[in-house]
Each structure stands twice: as C-alpha cells, then as structure tokens.
Amino acid sequence: MRAVRTRRPRPPRPSPELAKAPISPTTRSKPEEDPSPLTLPIKAFKLRLANGPPLASTAKDFKTYSETCASLLRLCRAMSATSTTMPSYAPSSGCLPLVLSLHAHAFRSGLTADRSVASNLLTAYAAFTRAADRDQAFRDCVAADAASSFTYDFMVSEHVKAGDIASARRLFYGMPEKSVVSYTTMVDALMKRGSVRDAVELYERCPLHSVAFFTAMISGFVRNELHKDAFPVFRKMLTCSVRPNVVTLICVIKACVGAGEFDLAMGVVGLAVKCNLFEKSIEVHNSLITLYLRMGDAAAAHRVFDDMEVRDVVSWTALLDVYADLGDLYGARRVLDAMPARNEVSWGTLIARHEQKGDTAEALKLYSQMLADGCRPNISCFSSVLSACATLQDLRGGTRIHANALKMGSSTNLFVSSSLIDMYCKCKQCTYAQRVFNSLPEKNTVCWNSLISGYSWNGKMVEAEGLFNKMPARNSVSWNTMISGYAENRRFGDALNYFYAMLASGHIPGEITLSSVLLACANLCSLEMGRMVHAEIVKLGIEDNIFMGTALSDMYAKSGDLDSSRRVFYQMPEKNNITWTAMVQGLAENGFAEESISLFEDMIENGIAPNEHTFLAILFACSHCGLVEQAIHYFETMQAHGIPPKSKHYTCMVDVLARAGCLPEAEELLMKVSSELDTSSWSSLLSACSTYRNKEIGERAAKKLHELEKDNTAGYVLLSNMYASCGKWKDAAETRILMQGASLKKDAGCSWLQLRGQYHAFFSWKEKHPLSLEIYEILDLLMLELTT
DNA sequence: ATAGGGTTAG
C-alpha cells in the first residue's frame, strides 16, 4: 500500500471559504466557481480526513466510511465522463489514494471480511480498473465467507465487461446460489457473442424469472436476427405474469418489425396502451415511428413524430428515414438540415439511402459533407460509402476511405472489410482485395463470399472455385455466387453442375439461384431442365415472383417454346419493363415480328417505360420483317424517349437499311457514327452488299472493317462471298488466300444438344462427333422410313 | 435489458 497524501501542508480550517478550497493541485489554478455540484461531497470528505477524528476503528464506523467512499466513487465515475473536458475530474486525481488508505486501514483492523466493506472495496477497485486488486478483494471475500450474491453478480459482470467470457462462465458455474441477475448477465453476454445455443440452454434451465431476464432473451434473439424466436419468450413472460416494461416493449416491437409480424405488433401496442407503458417514453415513440414506417404507413409514422412532446436525435433520424423510405431524398435532406442536432447515424442513414437508390455520386458528396460537419464515420457509414465507390469503380475514393477506416481502427470489422473486398474487386484490383482478406484475424462467410464473387466478377473462375472449395462454411449465398458467376461468365454447363451440387448439399434454392439457373437453361436451350426448374418454382410457391416469371418466360422463348413463354407472360400478376422487354425480344427473335411490334405498342399504352433493350428488340423485329419505315420511326421514338442509341442500335438500323437494299443510306448512317461503332455494323453492310451485288460499297466496307480489326475472320469471309456473288471469282479466291496468309481461319459454327446431362457438340466439318458414323447410319434409316 | 443506419448473390 502506498502512503496516502491526505494532509496538505497547511490544513484549512472549516469555514465558508474552505468549501471552495481546491481539492488537488491540478485544480488550484482553475477559476474559483465550480460548474458541477458533484465535487462538493468529495471536498467534504477530504475535509473530514484532514481535520476530523482518526479513521474508524470499528466495523460500524468503517462501514460508514467505506460506504461514503463508494458513493464518492460513483460520483467520480459520473465525473470521469466529463474528464476529457475537465482533467481535474479524472478519477485518478484524488479518489484512489482515499480508497487505498481505506483498504489499508480495514486490513489493519481486520475488517476486510465485513460484507459491506468487502463489496465496497470491490466496486471501488473495479471503478479504478485495478483488476488485480479487485480480484484480490474478491478472493478475500470468498475466503472470509463474506461473498454475497451481489458480490458474485458483480464479478460475473466485471468479467463480461472485460470480454472474458470464460472467466465469467467459470465463476457463474461456481456460484453457490445462482441469482437471476447473473443468469441475465450470462444470457446477455452469450447472445452478444452470438452463442445463441448456449444462451437458450441457460434460459431453459433457469428456475427464476425477472423482467430483465426475459427482456435480455428477447433482445438477444433480435440481435441475432432470430426475430421469430423472441415471441415464445414474450408469451412465456406473460403466462408467468411478469409484467413487461418499456424496454421489453421496445425489444418486442423490434422483433415484430424484423419478423414482419405487423398484426402482432399492433396487438403489442394495444397491450402497451392498456398497461400505460408508453406515455412519455421517447424510446418507445421512436421505435413506433420505425414500426409504422416498416408497415408502410408513413403518415402514421409522421403523426407519432408530430405528437411527441420531446424529441431527440433518434426521433429526427427516424423521421429522416420516413422521407427516404418514401423515395423523397430531397425531403430527407431537408429533415437533416432542420434537425436541431445531427450525428453520424443521421448522416449515415441519408448516405445509405442515396447509395441504395443508386445515387452513388451524391452519397460520396454527402460523406465529405459529413466529415466537414465534424461527424466521425462509423461502421455502417463506411460500408455504404465503400459500396458506392464499388459501383462507381472509384478506386481513388475507395482507397481514401480505406485509409480513413484504418485510421479509425475499423478496417478489420467484418462489415467494412467485406465492402473493401468488394470495392477493390469491382475496381479490378483483386490483389488488394486478397490482401484485405488475408489480413483479417477472423473471417466470416460473407468475407469469403465477397472475395469469391469478386474473382468471378473479374472472370477468374479458377480462383473463385479454389476459394469455394477451401471455405470452412458455405451458405446459400456462396452457392448462388458460384452459380451466377458461371452463368455470368457464360459457362452455363458449369452453372447447372453447381446447381445439382447445391441441391445435393441440402441447400434450398431461392429466387436468385433459380433465375441464374434459368438463364443457363435459356442459353443452353435446355428445355427439359428449364421445365424441371419451372416445376421447382411452382413447388416453392414463388411462381408469382416477378423475377421468376420474367426468367421463365425468357427461358421458354430462348428455347423456342413460344406457347409456354406466352402463357407464363400473360399469367403473371405483376410485370415490369424487363418482363415486357423479354417477351418483345422473345417474339422478335423467334420470327413473330408483327406480334412483337403489337406487344410493344401494348406496352407503351400500358404506360410501361421502354429501355434501350426494348428498342433493340423492336428494331430487330423490324429488320427481320424488312419494315424500314417502322424501324426509322422507332429509331426516332427512342431518341424522343431520351435514350441515346448505342452501337447495337446503329448496327440494327444499318442492318434494316442494308437488308432492304438501301445500301447508300446504310453507308451514310455508318459514316456518321462510325467512331462509336463496333465492327459488326460494317460486317452487316458488307453482307448486304453481297446480297445486292454492290461491289463499290462492299469494297469500302471491307477496307473499313480491315482497318478496325485486322484479325476479323468474318470480314474476309464476307468480302470473299461478296466477290463471289458479283461473279468476281478471282477476287473471291484471292481474298481467301489472303486470309490464310494472315493465318486466320473461320471459326467453326456448331450446334449442340443435351443428352442425359451430357452435352454433345456437332461441327460442320472438323472434329467429328465420336459417334458420327453411327449417327449418320441411323439418320439414313430414318430418312428411308420417311420416304417410303 | 433499450430506440435510428450497414456487407456478399440477380
């Protein structure tokens, strides 16, 4: 024990001025008026030590001292909250010596075993974060059989606060009589660590009840996103006639919101009204705002806000979210400006909403404004703003935010690092992403998924597959990532193989899985598999889902089963512009050009906004019917809709004109926009030149094509064809030789079919199918059957 | 024991 400096050189006499005497050297230079009444008891106590009778010599006296000391300590703790602005309030500035002195005295007097003294010493040392002294005091207590239930409860919560759940657990199981307080502490700690199973086990074994205990379970389930599990606890609480309080109510409402159980929520609110629970609680009102918002009743949410007598930042932020949820980001911004005080959550909400709505640039701008406003970004904010950088592929911005996160110590947070991995991958920096991933001390499935998805986004399926095989635990997102990754990289067969593996692993496919699988089916023209997926969708009861319907209708159209495609389309209860576009396109590509055009007109009449893909489909339809006038009309309509034509649209228009024989017009259009076009437009013109035997334009087109792309085999073939069609056999032959000289070969076209899960490809000349001899024999037999 | 915001798949 250290010697305690309790006496100052010149002990002040008790007099009115002395009440204002400085209590420690650090405060001596401070202005005499003290802003807080908190220091007064400490001064009084110091005076008592300085001038009063010697310290207590009996347990009773000592109890008075130690209790005084404990209450002083509570004051110190309250003041230490303001100790950053006022250093003299820091707990070390005078109280600790008092405690040490009291402890020494108690030790000398053999009073450490007094229950009250022991527990006050314990709390005192805990307040000064002197863990070793605290633990010694606890051991003294136990040895002297002076440990009360409170002592144990306190120590359990001390260990929990220090994050030492193992010690807390050991202590808890060693408790002679477990109190409901310790049960509550343990359950809460376990829930916060995500050990839901352990928490539930304790809950089921606990013979005692209290509001806090039940509430801790409810909030624990909510924290772990197991909203539905919270309801039985609430029900049990009511059957045990434990009255819910305000905190319970808040947690239960949150559970209802999370589970989407709004009827139940209204029942709970009714109950709360009956119990008079939410009269003047700001917190309950705040949670009501969010409840009504999630119910889709923005007006009611607003009313709750308006009716509140006192509002805080949370109320205002919830209101901001009401506006944002209605899509009124401008209104949300106005709320932010009108708020009496903003914090990082208010800014973060607005930023997240802009990011979600796709206004990523504005999200980044708001982020800078937030920093300028003096708010420190938190985990959520980093996540959304990094996500914005990912969509913008803004590597510089993303790196800067990475630096900010590093500085704030948030870079190893799993939410932030998942976003970082995603951001670096979207910016084509897989190495950095991998580095972020490697630097993580602990990884969760989301990080793994992010990196896998990042590699597949960059077309690196080998790496993606390697990670997928290595990861310790997979969820359905992991499977979806692989399946859609293969579908995106046009490896449709692999996508289907992963789908089979997913089913075998016992994961239930969801909308996302099935839409990728349908995309694969559509591209493989695998009608059989597509029908199976359709059946699966009906079985899962999600056939009315707009994504499912669109993907199904598209799959049938691409597989050539237009009847089924139409049936799905017309039975859909809800359609969006993508649904309509897919159908228009399906009809166009299958040669139902008139029907495609009339469906497009229906679409416009129904007020569905066409997009660039819709127009591409309709131009395609026109080109196949030779409807030049119509095509020009739609081409102009498109621009009137504010959709700038892209190279594919020009290609299509050139194709329309060229097919109809308007070769000079086609060439003129091409020359006008040539720089933005890809080579296919020139190929298309060249091809038409061979049909219409136009040698002059054809040669110009071929020249242009050659300039743009030296290795384009199609160009040589087309040119050669054109010469052939004009009867210029010599030129045709020379072109072929030229092509071979450039060591180019025409890519072989092929067709394929699926048989018992295996794909068989058929080429026009090379690489004969291994069974081609047999196949042709059968074919001959069939032909014979048919003709006789 | 507590209200407001967040990451990966289409």
TrEMBL record:
NCBIfam families: PPR
Protein name per the record: Pentatricopeptide repeat protein PPR868-14
Start and stop residues of the PPR repeats: 148-182, 210-244, 281-315, 343-377, 444-474, 475-509, 576-610, 611-645
Positions with biased composition (Basic residues): 1-11
InterPro entries: E_motif, PPR_At4g14850-like_plant, PPR_rpt, TPR-like_helical_dom_sf
Transmembrane helix in keyword set: no
Molecular-function annotations in GO: RNA binding
One GO process term, biological-process aspect: RNA modification
Taxonomy of the source species: Eukaryota, Viridiplantae, Streptophyta, Embryophyta, Tracheophyta
Keyword flag Repeat: yes
Keyword annotations: Repeat, Transit peptide
Region (Disordered): 1-37
Taxonomic superkingdom: Eukaryota
